Task: inverse folding
């Protein structure tokens, strides 16, 4: 009976170890932040920085930068220090950084395409139709 219990216990431990190794991410930065979250945060950061750079002459926007970043972090339920640690981790791995930035650029491109399509649709709705 002891041998059966030991065999079952060993089998359970082995399965647990195997299942953990199968689900473990190859991304060492996942311990700080999931890659999907990093992509979403970076996308918002890029959009925010683009907006700020367009309004450089307005000093009030520069005064609000910390608050705007805090809003991004709050929306994604992370802290500034979590983001900084994750960002530093991503920067240490060139392949991971490149992949993440490619995903950010893809997400921005998709968003831009959707925005352009909406503008085109709105424009076409406003164009008067001449029916003779």
Result:
């Amino acid at each position: 009976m002891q041998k059966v219990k030991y065999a079952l216990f060993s089998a359970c431990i082995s399965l647990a170890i195997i299942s953990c190794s199968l689900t473990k991410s190859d991304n060492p930065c996942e311990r700080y932040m999931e890659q999907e979250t990093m992509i979403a945060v970076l996308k918002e950061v890029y959009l925010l920085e683009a907006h700020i750079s367009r309004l450089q002459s307005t000093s009030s926007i520069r005064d609000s930068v910390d608050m705007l970043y805090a809003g991004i972090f709050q929306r994604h339920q992370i802290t500034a220090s979590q983001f900084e640690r994750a960002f530093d981790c991503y920067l240490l791995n060139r392949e991971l950084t490149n992949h993440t930035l490619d995903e950010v650029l893809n997400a921005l491109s998709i968003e831009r395409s959707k925005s352009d399509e909406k503008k085109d649709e709105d424009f076409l709705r406003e164009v008067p139709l001449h029916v003779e």
